[in-house]
Amino acid sequence: GRPSQPPSPKAATIPGVRHVIAVASGKGGVGKSTTACNLALALAANGQRVGILDADIYGPSLPKLFGLHGKPRVVSGRTLAPLEGFGVKVMSIGFLVEEETPMIWRGPMVMSAITQMLREVAWGELDVLVVDMPPGTGDAQLTMAQATPLAGAVIVSTPQDLALIDARRGVAMFRKTEVPILGIVENMSYFIAPDTGNRYDIFGHGGARKEAARLGVPFLGEVPLDMALRERSDTGRPIVATDPSSPHSLVYRDVARQV
Ligand code: ADP
């Protein structure tokens, strides 16, 4: 008889979740988690039912960004209930381990942790699940890009050449896995001195817009380097939720409308 069908290379969708959007960066420290957090809140502010998953399992920052500390409740078997912050459902490996515990995990453990956080969480009905990806373009990123059908990926970069080279690698990885690139956000795009109003392009400016044009993907917006944004992030009061009319929040709202 005929050989049986090979298993589908595409993994299953998550029940109840309509779209999964990845927020990624080629390297760490460019503001990927800050962007993921505020994008999720902006999507919620635009009227969507939103969840966010911290797939940055080596450096989970969502508990801090959302100001959440509790342990997720077990709802049945191994399934955990996400915590909730500012109307967004949040799941992070940071809820399950101590903050100081170093996570020295091998590849297969990383992969099973990511799939478990996608599938064994009672997300309920969501319009969008935002995934804060691990930085870079290695195995963990690839696992995530293939663990569930992604509606698209948002790439975060600073204007610096080095960050842009890494961002380009990120775009290439998603293209290879046939994930649509929703666009590029330039973070730390410029700085306005609060005392003088003078503008400084600390990491350069406009590099991401140029790179997006070169790659033929949308440019989604520029977020300045800003002390208030950083302070709010560090104290669990993300800017989109706690200062919705600030110019930065409007940029995130605008990005949310485009994805
Ligand atoms: P990543 O997820 O890429 O590692 P984070 O979002 O954790 O980056 O940001 C790294 C640090 O930079 C954090 O302390 C964060 O608060 C800060 N940061 C990110 N974006 C901005 C910004 N636009 N203005 C000021 N500080 C920022």
Q: Overview of this structure, please?
A:
This is Iron-sulfur cluster carrier protein. Keywords: ATP-binding, Hydrolase, Iron, Iron-sulfur, Metal-binding, Nucleotide-binding. Binds and transfers iron-sulfur (Fe-S) clusters to target apoproteins. Can hydrolyze ATP. A hairpin with a 6-residue loop joins strand 10 (191-192) and strand 11. The protein has a single domain (17-258), classed as Rossmann fold (3-Layer(aba) Sandwich). With 259 residues, it is of the alpha/beta class. An 8-stranded mixed β-sheet has the order 5-6-2-7-1-8-9-12, sandwiched between helices. Strands 3-4 form a two-stranded antiparallel sheet. The chain has 9 helices and 12 strands. It starts with 16 loop residues before the first strand and ends with a helix. The radius of gyration is 18 Å and the shape is globular. The protein has helices at 32-45, 62-66, 107-119, 139-147, 161-176, 207-215, 227-234, 239-242, 247-258; strands spanning 17-24, 50-54, 74-76, 79-80, 83-85, 88-92, 126-132, 152-157, 181-187, 191-192, 199-200, 219-223. The structure holds adenosine-5'-diphosphate. Adenosine-5'-diphosphate binds at residues 25, 28-34, 61, 135, 187-188, 223, 225-226, 229-230, 233-234.
